[in-house]
Structures are given as C-alpha cells and as structure tokens.
Design brief:
The structure holds two protein chains of two kinds.
Chain A (H helix, E strand, L loop, with lengths): L2 H16 L20 H15 L5 H4 L5 H10 L5
Chain B lengths: L5 E9 L6 H9 L6 E2 L12 E2 L12 H6 L2 H16 L10 E6 L5 H14 L8 H5 L3 H10 L4 E3 L7 H14 L5 E8 L4 H9 L29 E9 H7 L5 E10 L12 H14 L8 E3 L6 H15 L7 E3 L2 H4 L6 H15 L1 E2 L22 E2 L4 E8 L3 E9 L2
Helix pairs in contact in B: 3-6, 7-13, 10-11
The chains are: A mainly alpha, B alpha/beta.
C-alpha cells in the first residue's frame, strides 16, 4: 500500500467519523484546528484505522498525531498490511 | 419579594403521533393511535411485540455528525428542543440567564446495550468513546444545554415516569428563585429495545393485546391490561412573564404551580388510596393560589394499568372533593402510548394547548368505563369548552407524584 493509498483509505475513515469531505483530508490538515475533531472522535478514528490497516495505534502515539500526514506516516511505518 | 410569574412561550415534540408538536396535537384531537406492531426480529420472541414507536426518525431533523454522537433519547430531546426554541421565536438571552432541565426516565439504554454487544463481540478497544456521554442520565439535558449554550445550569431530575413533569416543576422553581429568566425544559425517552421491553413485560406492566395494538392503551376502560411503551420527547420553553413581555414573546399559558410528593408505599405499585397523588394535586393548586372549584380539566397520568388508573381516580376525588365531578378528565396515553420520562412534559404541553384552544382531547378506546372510576372522562369526541385552569398529573415508579397547574394567559 502506498502512502497515497493509505491517505485515500484514511480519508474515508475521517469522513465516517467526522463527516469531513474526503477531498479536504490532505496531509497538512490538523485534526483539531482544521477539522474541529475532539479527543473522543480521535479515538474513534484511531480504532477504525487499526481495523482497516491492521496496525496498532497505542494511546501514547495518538496524542502525537496532530495532522493527517502524521497519521498516514505512522500507519505506513507501523507496517500496514498489504 | 414577589413571586415571579412564569409563562410558556414555546412548545416542541416528536412523538408516536407525529414529528412535530402541532401535528401531534392534531392527531391527538383526531383520536389517532401511535401504537404499531414491531417487525424487528428481536420482537417476535417477546411477550409483547408492539409499541408506540416514533412517527418520525429523529435523524431526519439532525445533521449526520450531531446524530452519530447522540443516543436516540438525546436525538429526540434535541429535535423537540429545536422546535420549541424556534416556536418561542429564538429569544435573545444572556447565556448566564438561560437554563435547561431535560429529563429521561431510563437514559441511553439503547447505546448501553449496543456497546455491551461491541464489548463482548469485538473487545474493550472497540467500545465507542462516545458511550458515556450517550448513556448518562443527564445526557439529554447536556445535549440540549450545549445546543443552546445554556450557562445558568443544566439539570436532569430523574423520577421514572414523572421525570418530564419534574423537569418542568424545576424550571418553574429556577425562574421563581431568580436563577434564570428562560428555561428549556422537558423530557425524552427511547427504550423500545429488547431488554427494556422484556423487563416491563416481566413486571406485567405492559398490555399484551398483541393482535390489536391500536386498542391496547385504554385508560379507565374495564378491559385495560397494561400500558403501551412509547418513545419521543417534548420540550417547553418557560420564561419569566417580565422577560416574555419585554421581548414581545407570544404567551401560550401560565405555569402557575407545581406539587411534588412521594407515596413511600412501594417501589412500583401505587398507593391504592391515592393519598400521595392527591397531596401532589392539592399542593399544585395551593402553589398556584387557586381552589379546586376553579379547575376545569385534568390530564390524568392514567397509563392503562389495572391498579394505577383506579388509584388515580380515587386521588382526584380526594384532591377535588365535591368539584371532582365538574372536571373534564382526559388520558392522552390512550393515543400516544406511555413515553415514560417524556410523558409528563408531553402531557403538560397538551394541557397548555387545551387551555389555549379551549378543547379537551377524548380518551381513545374508552368503550366501557370502569365503574370504580366514576368521573367525567371525555370519550368519543374532543370536548370544546373554556379551560381557564387545568392540572396535569404524572406519577413514577419510586412513588413519585408530580402535578402541574396551568392557567390561561392573562
């Protein structure tokens, strides 16, 4: 899976949880400042991403994921299932 | 200090009869039943497989994001509150003078059960982070409070099926005490789901008239056999009379008094003498500064249970004495079913409209009145009559009795 594939799939999750149009989910966007996503919804996004990509996103890592790009990079590095 | 008059300036409801307050009122006057068969697979195995489910899904009036973070009970609360607030003319109000009192009898039990399934089937990390805000008993109040930015206080008094009436009584107190100028108050309930249905059926509280859902809720009738579970919400905007006058707000009626007592008799069964319920009515009249002969109409709690309806009839006779026979009594659960924590708010709204329009809705399915009731219960057709003063009764498991006195607008 390329980072672009991850981004596209991740954008679907952001849409499901926060109803942000997928075209707006780009790497530089910040979850809190740009999308007004609260900490509860961030947990939902993380668990949905774990299910979709077969990775583990520990709570300690979650707080460092400030942008969409941070999340895509984390999932890519964590070894997303092919 | 003079007691501040409190008026009703907005109404909203989403019920088994319709998705709005005006459409619910119209259907009520037409004698429509909101009871319908439950065709979900889970219902087939229950002893009762019908209910008064909402006429309109709450999600049709909410944006998707709001809907997905709220329990169904909260969705109903927000829909009814939005309608009531718009109906009141979206009053301009300092947030620190705006309070919310919205109750539920049971809370977010549909979310609780869904998330318990998620826990068992998929593990702890798949339990939604929105679970606690959705199941807490103050959840509907919190959702409405956030919606309107209410900062004078947000409350959710809980007293089972009296909760919605208690919310209104608390709203009255908040304004009288000077803690708020406007209070959005009411009740919401959404528990048409396997466990609550089975649990009420286990108490033998529900009607088992499965072959005739429309005929199942029959308060004061000899053939009554239990209540019909309903869902939905009703919300009233209460306002100090000065505040409403200053902004030119339309006044439906005056909320003139409230009475609250407890039977302290049994956790679920009513005191058969009706003494506690009678005291609630007497206190509500005294609080309003009126005598029993001034009251022309009572919206009874009457849920269609064999014991409850007769105990209430006794209570009405005790509270009103020789004036009891001059009352036009109705029991609107015959049409709406029993909305539990929303019932008291919905019935208070019906009384407000009865006072405003001068009409008392008829009790549906009252074919053969119970001889032990022996009161003037309106049946077959609504009765057009002046209703200068009326009382709404609500009682709940736990022995709670709440009565509200509503008086026509000056």
């Amino acid at each position: 899976m390329t980072d672009n594939d991850i981004l596209a799939a991740f954008a679907d999750i952001v849409y499901d949880v926060a109803r942000i149009d997928t075209s707006l989910v780009t790497p530089e966007k910040r979850f809190v400042d740009d999308f007004d996503i609260d900490s509860l919804s961030m947990v939902e996004i993380a668990t949905a991403a774990e299910d979709k990509f077969g990775v583990s996103i520990p709570d300690s890592a979650l707080s460092d994921l400030k942008t969409v790009g941070d999340a895509v990079a984390f999932i890519s590095k964590a070894g997303v299932a092919a | 200090m003079t007691v501040r008059d409190v008026v009703v300036t907005g109404l909203g409801a989403t019920t088994p009869l319709a998705g709005t307050m005006p459409a619910t009122w119209t259907a009520l006057l037409e004698g429509v039943s909101g009871a319908r068969p439950l065709d979900a697979p889970w219902a087939a195995d229950l002893p009762v497989h019908f209910a008064a489910s909402a006429a309109e899904e709450p999600t049709v009036r909410l944006d998707e994001l709001t809907a997905r973070t709220l329990d169904r009970s909260q969705q109903f609360a927000v829909v009814a509150a939005d309608e009531a607030w718009a109906d009141a003319g979206t009053p301009a109000i300092d947030p620190e003078r705006l309070a919310v009192v919205v109750s539920t009898g049971i809370g977010g039990v549909i979310t609780l059960l869904e998330q318990y399934d998620a826990l068992r089937e998929r593990g702890a990390r798949r339990v939604s982070p929105h679970t606690v805000p959705r199941i807490m008993p103050n959840g509907p109040a919190a959702a409405v409070g956030l919606r309107f930015g209410a900062r004078a206080g947000v409350h959710g008094p809980v007293s089972a099926c009296a909760s919605g009436a208690e919310a209104i009584a608390q709203g009255l107190d908040l304004i009288r005490a000077g803690r708020a100028d406007v209070v959005v108050c009411g009740g919401a309930e959404a528990v048409i789901s396997p466990l609550p249905m089975a649990a009420f059926a286990a108490m033998r509280a529900l009607s088992v008239r499965n072959d005739e859902p429309h005929a199942a809720s029959r308060p004061f009738d000899k053939q009554r056999d239990g209540f019909v579970l309903g869902e939905g919400a009703a919300v009233l905007v209460l306002e100090s009379a000065e505040h409403a006058a200053a902004r030119g707000g339309r006044v439906y009626a005056r909320l003139a008094g409230a009475g609250m007592t407890n039977d302290s008799h049994h956790v679920a069964a009513p005191d058969p003498t009706g003494a506690g319920a009678a005291r609630a009515m007497s206190l509500a009249m005294r609080d309003a500064g009126i005598t029993p002969d001034a009251v022309k109409h009572v919206n009874a709690h009457a849920t269609s249970t064999p014991a409850g309806d007769v105990a209430e009839a006794r209570a009405i006779k005790t509270a009103f004495g020789s004036s009891a026979n001059d009352l036009a009594i109705t029991a609107t659960k015959s049409c709406t079913g029993h909305l539990l924590g929303a019932a008291g708010a919905l019935e208070a709204a019906f009384v407000v409209l009865a006072v405003q329009h001068g009409v008392v809705p008829a009790v549906r399915n009252l074919d053969d009145p119970d001889d032990e009731v022996a009161l003037d219960v309106v049946r077959v057709e609504p009765r057009h009559m002046a209703v200068p003063v009326a009382v709404s009764n609500s009682f709940g498991f736990g022995g709670h009795n709440v009565a509200l006195t509503i008086v026509e607008a000056a």
